[in-house]
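Query structure, 522 tokens:
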């Protein structure tokens, strides 16, 4: 077994749970025990805390790796072959405006990180920044550098990097894996026995084939989900979409509800379609709440994290995140199948070639290969194409600082258009641009013009004073301390906004067998 010599870098390494998870996954591969690792983040405090935890993990597993931890991004990226991007540009300060300003105009979001008004503005901040990352990677990174993007909005960021960044970029998400687990549980079938094909765009990917030992279960899923009392209550939007479009969508109820125009456009009806059992099922501003709580708790509870047992770099502890498995496939030749976000180029034959799609792909020493998946049904393709149009316009607006194009993207966004008329969208976008000015340098001239216009014309549209249809109170540190164990779990998991369950032995077998070929475990 030959040891590999390459460098990986994490941009946005201050995400405590996610950074440690990806690093543990990667260093679980036997051939990767001597690689070089760099962390970079704009927050020196967060960077220091995460570095302490991750270095302790490395030391306790007997590896001779010293993390290069620096706020100098170019130093971290120097010679890096694989770069993990997990940033949230503007942090929670900007994120709060993504949720609160649209709410004044009647747009009630659960997450606000992919589409809708919040996701579009999140993309304006992030795309400008990730293109700066790409410039650094081109100039100081490894000649064959691969950017593994985990940052939302997934499709927009990956689109911008591939079209304008000059760096090969693949987008990675865990929505397909989580939905796969839900479907397997609904059928009461071991997950590694349930074969799925899922195609579409990120967060709007459709399970077009569900099979168990050759039997096609795709058409039986609706009956099974409706018969499950818990799922029927928690996943009303997804089940309704399955009923009307024929296929189940990857994203949880809260995510899905804000990408389409039907379930959150009337505040009086929102609670009919969501559950407050968990934030991700539809709570107003749910992701913002848990991110705020987890940040505050982590900063308070950090000394206790250092008292917890370090991570163990073992195959059993390896997660379902695609990143480490891709690196293993590329570097060792071991075959891996997953669902990846890439430029379409004919993979899904009735979606635009320039769009970023999510579909099954295979990784080995020959690279990342995406077989042709064929057509989506016309209905599912229509849902995706609506979002692709918004994504394309949002990418161009972000790259060129085009205020008019940004406002047009807002108008064409399904939920934004369902909730607001054109003057409301114009005023809302102006308000968001001004509020987020410090993170939008490409819009400097446009924002100056908006400020001058609004100083003269004012803000004629009266806005709402509302907390939203289903908003819960953000817990204080003292309230979280009442259940410290749960608070620590939240802080570890909410950095990526998903309530991931630990991958068990069944899932480990699954990711090694999905292609029908037994893949050696690392």
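Result returned for the query:
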């Amino acid at each position: 077994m030959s040891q590999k010599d390459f460098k990986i870098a994490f941009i946005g390494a201050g995400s405590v749970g996610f950074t440690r998870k990806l690093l543990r996954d990667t260093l679980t591969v036997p051939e990767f025990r001597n690689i070089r690792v760099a962390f970079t983040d704009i927050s020196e405090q967060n960077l220091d805390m995460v570095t302490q935890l991750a270095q302790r993990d490395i030391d306790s597993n007997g590896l001779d790796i010293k993390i290069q931890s620096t706020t100098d991004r170019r130093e971290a990226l120097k010679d890096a072959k694989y770069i993990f991007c997990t940033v949230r540009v503007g942090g929670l300060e900007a994120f709060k405006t993504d949720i609160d300003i649209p709410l004044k105009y009647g747009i009630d979001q659960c997450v606000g990180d992919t589409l809708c008004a919040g996701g579009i503005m999140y993309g304006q901040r992030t795309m400008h920044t990730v293109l700066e990352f790409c410039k650094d990677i081109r100039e100081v990174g490894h000649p064959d550098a691969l950017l593994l993007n985990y940052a939302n909005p997934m499709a927009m960021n990956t689109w911008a990097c591939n079209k304008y960044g000059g760096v090969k970029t693949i987008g990675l998400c865990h929505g397909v894996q989580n939905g796969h687990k839900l479907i397997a549980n609904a059928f009461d079938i071991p997950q590694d026995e349930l074969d799925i094909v899922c195609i579409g765009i990120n967060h709007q990917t459709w399970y077009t084939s569900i099979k168990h030992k050759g039997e096609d279960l795709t058409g039986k899923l609706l009956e099974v989900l409706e018969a499950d009392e818990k799922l029927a209550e928690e996943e009303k939007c997804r089940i309704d979409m399955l009923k009307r479009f024929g296929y189940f969508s990857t994203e949880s109820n809260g995510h899905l509800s804000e990408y389409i125009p039907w379930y959150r456009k009337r505040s009086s009806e929102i609670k009919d379609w969501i559950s407050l059992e968990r934030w991700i099922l539809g709570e107003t501003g749910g992701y913002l709440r848990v991110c705020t709580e987890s940040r505050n708790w982590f900063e308070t509870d950090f000394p206790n994290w250092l008292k917890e047992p370090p991570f163990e770099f073992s195959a059993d502890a390896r997660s379902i995140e695609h990143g480490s498995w891709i690196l293993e496939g590329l570097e060792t030749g071991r075959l891996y199948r997953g669902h990846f976000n890439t430029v379409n180029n004919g993979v899904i034959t009735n979606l635009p070639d320039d769009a970023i799609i999510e579909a099954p792909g295979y990784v080995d020493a020959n690279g990342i290969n995406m077989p042709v998946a064929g057509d989506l049904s016309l209905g599912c393709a229509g849902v995706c194409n609506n979002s692709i149009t918004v994504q394309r316009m949002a990418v161009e607006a972000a790259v060129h600082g085009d205020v008019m194009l940004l406002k047009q993207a807002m108008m064409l966004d399904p939920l934004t258009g369902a909730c607001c008329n054109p003057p409301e969208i114009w005023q809302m976008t102006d308000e968001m641009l001004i509020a987020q000015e410090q993170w939008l340098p490409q819009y400097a001239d446009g924002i100056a013009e908006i400020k001058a216009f609004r100083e003269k014309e004012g803000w004629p549209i009266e806005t709402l004073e509302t907390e939203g249809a289903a908003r819960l109170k953000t817990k204080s540190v003292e309230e979280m301390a009442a259940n410290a164990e749960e608070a620590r779990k939240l802080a570890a998991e909410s950095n990526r906004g998903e309530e991931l369950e630990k991958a068990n032995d069944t899932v480990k077998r699954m990711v090694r067998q999905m292609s029908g070929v037994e893949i050696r475990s690392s």
